[in-house]
C-alpha cells in the first residue's frame, strides 16, 4: 500500500474519485483534510496514470509517502 498526498481543491473530489475508481476500482481510500486528499492506494501511479491525473484534476502537488 502506498500513501499519496494530492494537494487540490475540494471541488476536485468528484473528478479524483472518478479517476481512482477507473484505475483501482474500489481498492483505495481517500480522505480530504485542509487542502489535501490523502489517498491509500494499492500501488504507485505510473507515468501514464500521473499524466491522466494531471489532465483530469487541477492539483498543485503530488507526493508519495
Automatic annotation (TrEMBL):
Lineage per the UniProt record: Eukaryota, Fungi, Dikarya, Ascomycota, Pezizomycotina
Please give the organism.
Pyricularia grisea (Crabgrass-specific blast fungus)
**What's the name of the protein?**
Uncharacterized protein
The highest taxon in the source lineage is: Eukaryota
Amino acid at each position: 500500500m502506498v500513501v499519496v498526498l494530492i494537494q487540490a481543491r475540494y471541488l476536485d473530489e468528484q473528478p479524483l474519485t472518478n479517476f481512482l475508481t477507473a484505475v483501482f476500482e474500489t481498492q483505495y481510500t481517500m480522505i480530504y483534510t485542509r487542502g489535501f486528499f490523502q489517498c491509500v492506494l494499492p500501488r504507485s501511479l505510473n507515468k501514464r496514470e500521473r499524466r491522466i491525473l494531471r489532465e483530469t484534476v487541477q492539483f498543485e502537488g503530488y507526493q508519495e509517502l
